[in-house]
Amino acid sequence: MHFWPPQPTPTPPAPGVVQVWQIAVEDWMPQLEALRACLAPAERHRVDRYRFARHRDRAAVIGGVLRRVLGSALGADPAALRLAAAAYGKPYLLMPDGQPAGLRFNVSDSAGVALIAVGWDTEIGVDVERIRPAPYRALASRFFAREEADDLLSLDDEDLPEAFFACWTRKEAYLKCMGTGLRTPLQSFAVSVRTQDPVRLRRPERPEHAGWYLGDLAPGNGYAAALATATVPQRITTATLVPHPLGP
Asked: In the β-sheet with 213-216, what is the strand arrangement from edge to edge?
């Protein structure tokens, strides 16, 4: 399940560039033990708390690949990186002096794939969701902002699944960029929904977010994905990170 052209090794992001790396979790399972070894003891403890082995393995793979991406960007040993969590749980990198690093990142996964977004000196949020059957109209009416729900309720049945998950991933990416997650009510802000409208924050949760970037990543393959950043990127790059034997 590859969204974008394959690339065997991660490269550091240039200033002003946000990279989005996709991984297909099954591709990386042969490297499970090596990826698990990259994790800090506290991370391994969290991974081991999952009840089912498939969930433990998925978390270890995603965490290990994340550390490889970050280590490549910083020219550092992935296992030596120090990660911490902000007030609402958003992870970030620590410098040796304990200050937050300038390299920012965010991770999302759904149904066997994960996205890792990285860039310098700007908050980042990314979300990916597999498009699947759901009571779209009921969920939109209950959880989304009024203008979003009105737009979704006006759509034909065949257009609803993609529009619903486009709206959902845009909202999640924005919340993850803020760092609050679902502690911020979904009705407190609104994103564009209709396919003919530009992707944007049509009503930010805070006025100072009016200049933030919000865009779709358009992975296809039955998935929806979106990216939010606190500054407008000069460029966004996308690639599928592939493991050995295609890469190290």
From this structure: 124-130, 223-229, 213-216
Read off the pTM. Answer: 0.96
pLDDT of residue 227 exceeding 90, the answer is yes
Would you say the CATH fold of 128-229 matches that of 6-122+233-241?
yes
Burial of 59 (0-12, 13-18, 19+ CB in 10 A): buried
CA dist 41 and 64 (Å) reads: 12
Map out the domains of the chain as residue ranges.
6-122+233-241, 128-229
190 class by beta-carbon count within 10 Å (0-12 exposed, 13-18 middle, 19+ buried): buried
Sort 41 into a burial class: Cβ within 10 Å, 0-12 / 13-18 / 19+.
exposed
Q: CA-CA distance, 236 to 234, in Å (whole number)?
A: 7
6-122+233-241 is classed CATH 3.40.309.10: no
- How confident is the model over 100-131, as pLDDT tens digits? 999 999 999 999 999 999 999 999 999 999 99
DSSP assignment, residue 100? B
CATH of domain 128-229: 3.90.470.20
Read off the tokens for 85. 């969590």
Give the Å distances, CA to CA, from 101 to 63, 105, 202. Answer: 18, 10, 31
Which tokens is 182 given?
């679902």
Q: pLDDT (tens digit, 9 = 90+) per residue, 177-211? A: 999 988 899 999 999 998 778 999 999 999 999 99
